[in-house]
């Protein structure tokens, strides 16, 4: 799994880490050290990401109306996958994360692609439906990605979403 955009999207220390991880000996050392502490982590993450990517591409071909990525952070799916431009993508995250991503996208592309809408939300205090409606989300057949987010939320906040 190669994501050429990830290196350009993440903050400075992340760029250093991704550059180092491209070198075989460093990558093997990182994987080995991680596997000793959390066996299966790397394989699990890669399989999870690939599965979500494959399901999203299939859903696009099957005729979905929108994509919503909750806790989008520096996720690059909206930019690296063959999502038709007539399917709107809503990348939802905390306001600070959205601001950083807007700056990164401006540096890489000049702005976010037209089909992508960055949506700032406070998951603890705002209603997702209300915030989405304010950004043009109309419902319909929607593919939701909610990957690696719940560990940052309280149980009531997760239930609220």
Supply the CATH superfamily name.
Vaccinia Virus protein VP39
DSSP summary: helix tally: 8
**Percent of residues in beta strands:** 5-15%
Q: Which structural class fits the helix and strand makeup?
A: alpha/beta
Could you characterize the architecture of this molecule?
By secondary structure, this protein is of the alpha/beta class. The chain has one domain (6-160): 3-Layer(aba) Sandwich (Rossmann fold). 51% of the residues lie in helices and 12% in strands. Strands 3-2-1-4 form a four-stranded parallel sheet, with helices on one face. Strand 1, helix 5 and strand 2 form a beta-alpha-beta unit. The longest helix is centred in the N-terminal third of the chain and has 22 residues, at 41-62. It is globular and about 50 Å long. The two termini are 30 Å apart. The model has no long low-confidence stretch (mean pLDDT 87).
Summarize the structure.
The protein is an alpha/beta fold and 161 residues long. It has helices spanning 6-9, 12-21, 24-37, 41-62, 77-80, 95-109, 128-134, 155-160, and strands at 66-70, 89-93, 116-120, 142-145. The mean pLDDT is 87.
What distinguishing features does this structure have?
161 residues, alpha/beta, Rossmann fold, 4-stranded parallel β-sheet, 8 helices, 4 strands, 12% strand, globular
């Amino acid at each position: 799994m190669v994501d050429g955009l990830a290196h350009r999207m993440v903050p400075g220390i992340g760029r250093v880490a991704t550059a180092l991880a491209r070198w075989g000996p460093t990558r093997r050392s990182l994987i080995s050290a991680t596997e000793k502490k959390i066996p299966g982590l790397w394989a699990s993450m890669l399989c999870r990401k690939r599965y979500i990517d494959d399901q999203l591409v299939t859903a696009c071909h099957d005729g979905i109306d929108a994509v919503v990525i909750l806790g989008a952070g520096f996720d690059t799916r909206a930019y690296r996958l063959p999502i038709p431009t007539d399917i709107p993508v809503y990348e939802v995250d905390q306001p600070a994360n959205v601001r950083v991503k807007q700056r990164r996208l401006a540096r890489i592309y000049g702005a976010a692609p037209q089909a992508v809408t960055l949506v700032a939300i406070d998951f603890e205090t705002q209603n997702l439906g209300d915030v989405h409606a304010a950004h043009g989300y109309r419902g319909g057949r929607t593919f939701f990605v909610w990957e690696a987010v719940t560990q940052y939320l309280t149980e009531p906040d997760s239930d609220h979403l």
